[in-house]
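User: Could you go from structure to sequence for me? I need the amino acid at each position, not a summary. Structure tokens:
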């Protein structure tokens, strides 16, 4: 046999052997994910399976055979996909991902979500819980921080029983929906297939997101003065003009009893929402009525909210659709009627604050058609479903 032919055969054999080795490695490390992704499991089992499956993917962490396999991974705290909120169950998902990573200390170093860690990490880990029929789908993804591509993704289904989707303090206290293009980008990234680019709006603001997260952790532990300082630090960054930051400043000032500054901050928050046509306020009503929730701890700020919404709306040349929403309980026709009556009530209150708004406002009852959460629990979990939404439109002459 000619030497050239022999060399070609040996080279081909080496390539074949290498491919077989890579396949074996992939098969061995993937052996933990024994259940298909469409089988519902208890939440903690599903969370562990998703994390194991993600970290087992050779494209995500092992790379080329023969090089060190240990990778530094930063976890951006997981979210409820529908609302963009952190809940007790997303917090538990973070903990379970951490437990899985801790058992793999030889090949994974899971780092806290800090700006300094982003600079030294290989990958960014994102994750969401999405309500689907009788379960929640867990989506987790790894993003290569050097090129911005998703390099691994995994999914599992968790049964709803035993899950706690109550929002953490910041999200519970927030007067409005804080899901903006940054949060939506995070949610999209968590479900992307490997090889696709992570959402640019999310990645471009990732450093500021670490400061926002630090501030939110402080708020959730009632350290409001420190939280205010951190939110203001986030606002001072180039990417800091975000709804989460403005909300945090308002909430912290309100908790500190600085009423005048809190109202000014809320006005800025409303102006931001109007400018971005994304203003959904959580006005809670007594069941079946157009009366605001009786507990002053909940509704005492509503008069100020209405005053600022009226002022900021009056300062624009636009007309506004006031969309009333209800949670998914009771008859559909009744809920449409109730949501319309509540929208009309808000319109009347705004007109009393700024008469010009009344002539440019149109009340609409949405019933439960545009539920965000859709649980029908009528508690803090689905508070966002009982919101009033303000949409700016061109005035028809």
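Assistant: Here is the amino acid at each position, in order:
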């Amino acid at each position: 046999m000619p030497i050239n032919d022999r060399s070609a055969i040996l080279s081909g054999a080496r390539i074949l052997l290498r491919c077989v080795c890579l396949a074996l490695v992939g098969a061995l490390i993937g052996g933990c994910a024994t259940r298909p992704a469409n089988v519902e499991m208890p939440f903690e089992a599903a969370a562990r399976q998703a994390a194991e499956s993600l970290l087992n993917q050779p494209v995500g962490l092992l790379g080329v055979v023969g090089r060190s396999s240990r990778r530094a991974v930063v976890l951006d705290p997981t979210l409820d996909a529908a609302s963009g909120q952190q809940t007790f169950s997303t917090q538990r998902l973070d903990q379970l991902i951490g437990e899985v990573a801790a058992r793999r200390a030889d090949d994974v170093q899971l780092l806290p979500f800090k700006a300094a860690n982003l600079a030294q990490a290989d990958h960014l880990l994102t994750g969401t819980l999405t309500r689907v029929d009788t379960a929640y789908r867990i989506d987790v993804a790894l993003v290569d921080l050097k090129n911005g591509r998703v390099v691994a993704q995994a999914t599992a289904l968790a049964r709803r029983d035993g899950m706690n989707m109550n929002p953490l303090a910041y999200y519970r206290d927030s007067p409005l929906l804080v899901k903006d293009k940054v949060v939506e980008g995070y949610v999209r990234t968590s479900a992307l297939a490997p090889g696709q680019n992570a959402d640019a709006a999310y990645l471009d603001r990732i450093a500021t997101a670490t400061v926002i997260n630090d501030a939110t952790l402080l708020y959730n532990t009632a350290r409001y003065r420190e939280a205010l300082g951190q939110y203001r630090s986030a606002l001072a960054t180039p990417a800091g003009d975000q709804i989460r930051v403005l909300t945090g400043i308002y909430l912290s000032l309100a908790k500190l009893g600085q009423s005048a500054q809190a109202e000014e901050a809320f006005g800025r928050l409303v102006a931001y929402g109007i400018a971005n046509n994304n203003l959904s306020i959580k006005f809670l009503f007594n069941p079946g009525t157009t009366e605001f929730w009786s507990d002053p701890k909940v509704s005492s700020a509503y008069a100020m909210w209405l005053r600022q919404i009226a002022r900021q709306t009056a300062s624009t040349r636009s007309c506004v659709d006031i969309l009333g929403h209800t949670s998914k309980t009771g008859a559909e026709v009744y809920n449409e009627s109730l949501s319309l009556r509540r929208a009309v009530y808000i319109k009347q209150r705004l007109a009393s604050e700024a008469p010009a708004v009344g002539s440019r406002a149109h009340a609409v009852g949405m019933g439960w058609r545009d539920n965000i959460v859709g649980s029908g629990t009528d508690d803090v979990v689905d508070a966002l479903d009982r919101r009033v939404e303000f949409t700016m439109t061109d005035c028809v002459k």
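One structural detail worth keeping in mind: The radius of gyration is 25 Å.
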